[in-house]
Amino acid sequence: MYDTLTPSQARDMLSAVAQHLVANVDMLTEVDQAIGDGDHGIGMRRGFAAVEEAMATIDPESVSKVFKAAGTTIMAKTGGAAGAVFGTLFRAGSAALEGRPALDAEGLAGFLLLGLEGVEKRGGAQPGQKTMIDALAPASVAAEAAIASGLVVAVRNATDAAKAGVEATKGMIATTGKARTLGERSLGHPDPGAVSMSLILEAMRDYIAA
Question: Residue 104 CA to chain centroid, in angstroms?
């Protein structure tokens, strides 16, 4: 278990995140086929495979640099709306880590909050519209509430909140993105972006709490 992560440990964590996303490409594709065109998993695999490559070569001089590099890579390689959204998550969120020598609970909460604000600004979506925000927003709240309890508790609580958010999207009607054309037919299915957000936090949790 880690109370804080050094820049090199943050790099290794994001490499583990990338591996986790790539390993779940088939599941993401299946989820997206239910309410979209099925390309979400392929895009996420392309983007996060590139993140793993980037993490293997980057100089981990700061936590913020590592997170920003991941975001830049996702934005450049994933393609489509997912690339823009998840790239923004990491790039905007990295601003909360500037000047911090290590990733701690406060830094994680700040990353999620600024990432959320960046995604909302870029995509115009809000909670309740069946998007990745429905996993990210509750995760941000949970991490903020757990700052005093330390990094392990904060990332565990954020992950649990994101998973609950994924479940909540099953009861939502998509009003934005490709799935909005389905209307009530999107009911009963989780949002693929929310699932990906949950997987990112799940991998972070597994690294930090190991």
Answer: 17
